[in-house]
């Protein structure tokens, strides 16, 4: 594997599957724009109209060719920042949210990083261009990506290969969107100091994997290594059926001495499980079930755990109906139980 740092996580649980120098403070280039986008979504509306400043229009390098004085919606600028990694779009958003002050916006970025627990992150610019003291880590950018991907608008944008906005057509820098099955984001980055970097997310067989690679030597190597990291992450899971519909998982005692009642699974649980990690099955049901009982009545749960984490749960239901005995039956049962207890006194 080539690069300064990398990390592979379960996208749903945050469980780290593989890491190398994941807390090392490194330049992250345009992955910085994830924080710029987060703050924009928290402080602006998608249909707000932004006037591009001369400073934003002149920032250079990767851009959407915005012109000073041009008016675009926040949504268009988000698409430019996320799809084409446009520095001018990121700076225009920072100018808008920071009320004309990039310094104010950068202070907001660092405050939000502290709130999210990004301990190895410090921002100097909203676009990610190289600057002294501007850094993050594979761990932090992966966490930030997962936070941002909870927003539907972000998920919609980052999986797109192209888009058309007022200033022209956008094209993604994320090559894996063309080549890796199940990929749906998230963000690339490249500068001379940061190298070629990316936070990627893919989903297969019910498993979401995030793979982050920072500081790869070139674009092709980044893509190849990210493919290897994602493949390795998916290989850590096996599709299993730890709970099978209609299978009995418990026997419940019934009131009035009736024969025990089998409790069966209401449905099957098909879940991706960590390969080589023990599966713990916990059965929850009452000590004694009151009568009457209807077939199919929910009376408990079968729960599946790995490493203390709940994987899934399925209701346990009564396998048959059992009526409550009539008065004579109840009296007879109480009589027999009393006589049995009395016999125990003299044994």
Description:
- There is one protein chain.
- It is elongated, with a radius of gyration of 29 Å.
- The protein is α+β, with helices and mostly antiparallel strands and about 350 residues long.
- It folds into 2 domains: about 5-235, 3-Layer(aba) Sandwich (Beta-lactamase); about 240-325, D-Ala-D-Ala carboxypeptidase, C-terminal domain (Peptidoglycan synthesis regulatory factor (PBP3), Domain 2, Sandwich), CATH 2.60.410.10.
- The strands form 5 sheets. Strands 14-16-17-12-11-15 form a 6-stranded mixed beta sheet, with no helix packed on it. A 5-stranded antiparallel beta sheet has the order 2-1-9-8-7, with helices on both faces. A two-stranded antiparallel ribbon has the order 3-4.
- Helix 1 packs parallel to helix 4 (about 85-95) and helix 3 (about 75-85) packs across helix 4 (about 85-95).
- It contains 10 helices and 17 strands.
- It has helices at about 35-45, 55, 75-85, 85-95, 100-115, 140-150, 150-160, 175-180, 220-235, 325-345, and strands spanning about 5-10, 15-20, 50, 70-75, 160-165, 170, 185-190, 195-205, 205-215, 235-245, 250-255, 260-265, 270-275, 280-285, 290, 300-305, 310-320.
Output the helix-strand order: EEHEHEHHHHHEEHEEEHEEEEEEEEH
Reported by name, the CATH topology of the largest domain is Beta-lactamase
Rg, Å, rounded = 29 Å
Question: Mind telling me the CATH class of the largest domain?
Answer: Alpha Beta
Largest sheet: 6 strands, mixed
- In what order do the strands lie side by side in the largest sheet? 14-16-17-12-11-15
Shape field: elongated
Structural class: alpha+beta
Distance between the termini: 76 Å
The CATH superfamily of the largest domain is known as: DD-peptidase/beta-lactamase superfamily
Helical fraction equals 25-40%
Number of helices: 10
Summed over residues and divided by their number, the pLDDT gives a mean of: 91
Number of domains: 2
Unreliable runs: 330-334, 339-343
- Just name the CATH architecture of the largest domain: 3-Layer(aba) Sandwich
- What's the β-strand tally? 17
Strand content: 25-35%
